Amino acid sequence: DQQVKQNSPSLSVQEGRISILNCDYTNSMFDYFLWYKKYPAEGPTFLISISSIKDKNEDGRFTVFLNKSAKHLSLHIVPSQPGDSAVYFCAAKEYGNKLVFGAGTILRVKS
Amino acid sequence: DTGVSQDPRHKITKRGQNVTFRCDPISEHNRLYWYRQTLGQGPEFLTYFQNEAQLEKSRLLSDRFSAERPKGSFSTLEIQRTEQGDSAMYLCASQRGHVYEQYFGPGTRLTVT
User: Fold this and answer.
1) Secondary structure of chain B: what % helix, strand, coil (to 5)?
2) What whole-number distance in Å separates Cα of residue A6 and Cα of residue A9?
3) Over the stretch A5-25, which tens digit does the pLDDT of each residue have?
């Protein structure tokens, strides 16, 4: 049973526009959420995170929004750049420390 | 480079052989995690250490898998009697104290023929 779902396998966006990646979760015990970016042949790279007590966190071009009532979070990238093309994983931390990952969304930014 | 390192980066082995992977975490990080990733999926938790103590193991970790972290520094993951289903990317991550972000190494890609 997938507790973290990324329902869009891929997303294509024009350079300079906004990229919105979505993530849904089912476990209400998740208390911290993270986004990772992964390039081919590399490990995931931490991007941005948000605590369950907040609804927004911003870091430069990246903003994560959390809607606890809907069990939904999203990552906004503005403006999108070709170097942002990668696989993006949503992850959630439950009690303890292990992370539960979604299956990932492939983002392609076209120049 | 002070990031997480893993060795080897690639391993091809025949079914039934034993393999061992090594992970060196970021030096001040006391927590170390092992994950497995297969094609089209996100990383799946296998086990984690706080210092030298192994605190949690996933049910994915069969009896053929064993992990150690002697002296709370580097860690090894051994798979005995490998099966084709063990083919995957094995990722190591480290974490400092109560900061929740985990930092991943480049992974070891295992192919069992």
Assistant:
1) 5, 50, 45
2) 7
3) 999 999 999 999 999 999 999
